[in-house]
Amino acid sequence: MAGSVRNYYAGGNTAKGFHSLFDDCLKDLQRVFILQGAPGTGKSTLMKKVGEYWTGRNYQVEYLHCPLDTSSIDGVIIPELKVGIVNGSSFYTITPRALGAIEEYVNLGEGWDSSKLVEHKDQILRLSMLAGNAKQKAYEHFAEALSIHDNWEKIYIEAMDFQKADDLTRKLVSQFYGSMTLNKESAVKHRFLGAATPVGAVDHVPNLTEDVAKRYFIKGRPGSGKSTMLRKIAEEAQVRGLDVEVYHCGFDPNSLDMVIVRELGMAIFDSTAPHEYFPSRDGDEIVDMYGSVIASGTDEIFEEEISNHKTAYKNMMDQAIGFLKECSEYNQELEQIYTDAMDFDKVNELTEHVQEMIHQLEEK
């Protein structure tokens, strides 16, 4: 019997630039292998091999997906063994807590032929610069899209009945938790359920909620209080000692998109574009923010203004994704240079070294 797999992101291409939640995702682990090496040196392949092996041994495995390459992962965690392997690229800024005792660097650069790379030095520098510039342009366009989205939200914020929103939140909190309080400290995990990628928005809501009995789909317009509601629900779970998974918005990391309390078999999430889903099984329920807290007729009264914001927002997001795609194309060229210079027998040796270390943890 194979173990289960959970998929999510620990980093995102957001309107605030690249945003990393890696330190939070790794905080409970007692052993972390940080892979060093350029694109194309086999980091993702190594992590996938390890993940597949331990899934085959009936362990739950978590894959931390790469927001810049949907075919790659940036981390793999085996929670039961409290061990993880992660991409040590600089943009994740992983902060070691006890280097040597918890974290260990694994240098895949040991497998490359430097003389081949020297031959391509100018090309490596050029592609790295072009990829960096394209990524920065993407972030600038995401920031502009957020500004447009903020103006779009204002229409609904001004039409919102905050008392009704508070009442709805209190009703849900009572429905979820009742009088339950556990005599333990809440474990809180911060993640992204999806990300803006070179192929557009990608999310893992179906996977993350597949074993959750009760799912609540929040429907509502921008600015209708979805994130605020989720934040209050997550805070209440912590107060009551319940473990909670908090999923941030891949576009605006200051906002929340989903809360899961697995001890209660409950998930509630923003089920609007770009991660729009509808009830499909027993236990699914819609929470309608528009119909319950926004003044009737708002869509019709501000139809033209809303349409203009929606069009401008989509155009800006499309441009941002276009720059991410451009960045990805440069990275693929860069990866090929390093791949051609790699001795993957050395990478296989390093994979075996990591596996041996994990086996030692299993035996303890």
Description:
With 364 residues, the protein is an alpha/beta fold. The protein has 11 helices and 16 strands. It has helices at 22-26, 43-56, 114-119, 121-158, 162-177, 205-209, 226-239, 289-293, 298-301, 303-340, 344-363; strands at residues 5-9, 11-14, 17-20, 31-36, 61-65, 73-78, 83-87, 103-107, 188-192, 194-197, 200-203, 214-219, 244-248, 256-261, 266-270, 284-288. The strands form 4 sheets. Strands 1-5-6-7-4-8 form a 6-stranded mixed sheet, with helices on one face. A 6-stranded mixed sheet has the order 9-13-14-15-12-16. A hairpin with a 2-residue loop joins strand 10 (194-197) and strand 11 (200-203). Helix 2 packs parallel to helix 11 (344-363). The chain is flat and about 70 Å long.
Short description:
This is PRK06851 family protein. With 364 residues, this protein is of the alpha/beta class.
List keywords for this structure.
alpha/beta; 11 helices; 364 residues
What coarse outline follows from CA principal-axis ratios? Answer: flat
Q: Record the strand order, biggest sheet.
A: 1-5-6-7-4-8
Number of strands: 16
Strand content: 15-25%
CA radius of gyration is 22 Å
Question: What is the number of helical segments per DSSP (H or I, 4+ residues)?
Answer: 11
Sheet bearing the most strands, described? 6 strands, mixed
What is the helical fraction, as a range of percent?
40-55%
**Sequence of secondary-structure elements:** EEEHEHEEEEHHHEEEHEHEEEEHHHH
Give unreliable regions as ranges: none
How far apart, in Å, are the first and last alpha carbons? Answer: 23 Å
Mean pLDDT: 96
* Derived structural class: alpha/beta
